[in-house]
Design a protein that fits this description.
Number of helices: 8
Structural class: alpha+beta
Order of helices and strands: HEHEHEEEEHHHEEHEEHE
Helix content: 40-55%
Number of strands: 11
Distance between the termini: 45 Å
Shape: globular
Length: 272
């Protein structure tokens, strides 16, 4: 039997949700300012481009923002952002902090945001954030072959999850370790023997969807309205979203409209 839902916690999260979204929007505006200043291209991705197309802003029950940029532009952003971000924001990368996932984020330090899997033995920042995903050019191969990235991402995730000693965890490490090495080696062979002039996608360890986009559906970038403001978007938003979600305009049933986080505190120290 599933654990009973705490109605008070759920109501509290609902009360915090819009305030959290607006704070995340302000983080996005700061990222946009820096990217424009330094000619770094980025675009709304994932649930954020879906929300923009379907709702004109946040998906009503969504509590994060996703953007993407090429790996080259991300490397530039990581160099520039620490000295450019306004006070109260910080750049979080797996190299700078021992985080639970291989994703670059810009965090708001004066907030607290708990997700499933957060490790409280680690001191990494846990404030509200905007996710930044790096994209790379993919080899020109069948989309069916690209589905192997789902297994690469899954194997990587399992291998980097905290394990406690048991026969099962030892077996998992052996099985998924072998799978990860095998698939990465196979992908490398494919990568060096094919052109890279048609497709683009998330880095392998972040491509849990196992998909890629046509480069001409992404470039040249366009703009889209998100919460009353214009932000960069894929050139062909419809094609991009069909790659991600198929029938993306279909609203999910009520039972699937859930806030991702476990707990949200939009402000820890009052500025008044």
């Amino acid at each position: 039997m599933s654990q009973a839902m705490n109605k008070y916690l759920e109501e509290y999260k609902q009360q915090q949700l819009r305030k959290a979204q607006l704070k995340q929007l302000s983080i996005l505006e700061e990222i946009d300012r820096i990217c424009k200043k330094h000619n770094i291209e980025y675009w709304l991705d994932g649930g954020s481009i879906l929300g923009a197309a379907r709702h004109g802003g946040f998906i009503p029950w969504d509590d994060d923002i996703d953007i993407a940029m090429t790996q080259e532009d991300m490397e530039r952003f990581i160099e520039i952002a620490p000295t450019e971000l306004r006070e109260g924001l910080s750049l979080q990368t797996p190299k700078l902090e021992d985080t639970k996932e291989p994703i670059v984020k810009v965090r708001d330090k004066n907030s607290f945001y708990v997700e499933p899997g957060d490790d409280f033995s680690k001191g990494y920042d846990k404030g509200l954030y905007v996710d930044i995903f790096p994209f790379i050019k993919y080899p020109t191969v069948s989309r069916r072959i690209v589905k192997m990235t789902r297994k690469i991402a899954k194997s990587y995730s399992i291998l980097n999850t905290k394990h406690y000693y048991s026969f099962r965890s030892a077996a998992e490490l052996i099985w998924f370790g072998a799978e990860y090495i095998l698939l990465k080696t196979l992908w490398k062979l494919i990568d060096i023997t094919h052109k890279h002039d048609v497709y683009i996608g998330n880095t392998l360890i972040n491509n849990g969807y196992g998909i890629m986009h046509r480069q001409d559906s992404l470039y040249p970038l366009s703009t889209i309205t998100f919460e009353g403001k214009e932000f960069p978007a894929p050139h062909d938003t419809d094609a991009y979203l069909k790659d991600l979600y198929k029938n993306y305009m279909e609203i999910p049933p009520v039972e699937k409209r859930k806030i991702h986080s476990i707990f949200i505190q939009t402000e820890m120290i009052s500025k008044d």
